Amino acid sequence: MASQRPTPSALRRRFPPVKDLRELMKFEKPTIDITGRRLAKATNVWELRKIAKRRTPTAPFDYVDGAAENEISLNRARMAYRDLEFNPGVLRDVSDADLSTEIFGDRVSMPLAIAPTGFTRMMQTEGEYAGSAAAADKGIPFCLSTMGTASLEDVAAHTPDGNNWFQLYLWKDREASKELVQRAWDAGYRKLIVTVDTAIAGARLRDIRNGFSIPPQLTWKTVLDASYRPAWWFNFLTTEQLSFASLSRSSGTVAELVDRMFDPALTFDDIDWIRELWPGTLICKGLQTVEDSQRVLDHGADGIILSNHGGRQLDRAPVPLHLLPKVRQAVGEEVTIGLDTGIMDGADIAAAVALGADYTLVGRAYVYGLMAGGQRGVARMLDIMEDQMRRTMRLCGVTKVSELTPDHVTLKTSEAASGYWI
């Protein structure tokens, strides 16, 4: 029989002292800054996405959130990051971690850039102005898209202290493309990204279903959808009409704009042509094979970005993270490699760098932050990514970006994860 034990003094019933109650009853201070409170509570990019979805009409949100056809490419890219394993080193001094690195000779605060995105001011009225400012404040590059809703000159004037890059879609009208490249140089841009995976537009079914266009076409459905998002509605009505600022204020449906702009006759000879035009750093984005990665370098590119366009072009495209080690081995250590598609966490950045990327780019994560809270939302996204990457590095026993190596990551290939895709 168990012996009778006395009740410990800590478990004896008592009336709580007032001073103890005072310590427990620390309520959140009231604030009129609802957006700031929401952003502060977001602990990851997925929670920013939830805020963005509540605040943004369906058509613009789906343009950001969706991908081509069955969205398999995007889901596989995200699963690649979820499936990998980190191999942490222990018993290292990880009092802090320095995330800074160099991209094309420029010192940046972490190996991350904001990717070029189109239609951006439709998602939230601050658009590229918010993205470029948040990037400049964080000390990372910002990439302006040809299909952006702020002009080359306006973004450069807004963030003269920023590391601003320009992304080019080659038009069928080569003279117009030449003029756009010259505008970029004259406005102070020194990094030119040429996107090479858009010979034709992918089938983005969410956009087709939503009838997505610029400027947005008002129907009873779109008015009703926007009516319970008053901030978006107010911003849309009280700011400059949306248009593609680099395209002479062009408008139309997404499909019409793409068919009018993209050139299905684009070849490697056009990379030679751009190389002759552009005196700055030339980067090719949208590489999805080892062979093509090597060929664009042979045609004058200074760097490459492994990307399947965020899953928005060819569905079932290669996963950039899986391709990365092969490309790095083929092109050598001196070539600057960027990587995008599927990155939603600072740990994803750490994994990509470990496997051979010099830097990464985020598009959806950036716009989720933008839709959640304008420039402050983008800044919050970058802070989250930075904290996640720093914590991941320290837990892996690493204190510098240069110390991340393939030994820190076990990458499961698509074959190993095939059970997810049956």
Automatic annotation (TrEMBL):
InterPro entries: Aldolase_TIM, Alpha-hydoxy_acid_DH_FMN, FMN-dep_DH, FMN_HAD, FMN_hydac_DH_AS. One of its GO terms (molecular function) is oxidoreductase activity, acting on CH-OH group of donors. The active site is at residue 309. Residues 37-414 form the FMN hydroxy acid dehydrogenase domain. FMN binds at residues 116-118, 145, 195, 285, 307, 363-364. Pfam families: FMN_dh. Its cofactor is FMN. Signal peptide: none annotated. It is an enzyme of class 1 (oxidoreductase). Coiled coil: none annotated. Glyoxylate binds at residues 63, 167, 169, 204, 309, 312. The keyword Protein biosynthesis does not apply. PANTHER family: 2-HYDROXYACID OXIDASE 1, S -2-HYDROXY-ACID OXIDASE-RELATED. Belongs to the FMN-dependent alpha-hydroxy acid dehydrogenase family. This is L-lactate dehydrogenase. It comes from Corynebacterium provencense.
